[in-house]
Amino acid sequence: MNVNDLFKASFGSYGSVYLNGDGAILDLDGATANRFIMAITMMEDVTFQKIQTLDGVIGSISSDGSTETQIDDAFGAVTSWTSGTSNNDALSITTSHVFPKGVTIYGKWDYVDLNSGACLCYLAPVGY
Q: What is the pTM of this model?
């Protein structure tokens, strides 16, 4: 990916999807999907029912219940993360985690299911 592609992706040139309210879903978790979600901007205070990382990548927050071993393997180093601590909460979100209006989070996701609020999901091509 060159700088021009990065610039295009960061400004929504590859598309975006507006999600609003409980049950709004963007599902790009399929073999034929050619886009993933690279950023999510909160238009209102948002809680997620589920947010799933692209291909199980641990580098983004998720609600997939990642384990210590998976994180060690993904980062190539031993972590001090212990299940049930606040570090766990930083990677695995629940409906009690509120993302305030105006905040943008960045990562690689292929599935977003809102619990409440509204957000704008910015897309990028798979392989980016």
A: 0.73
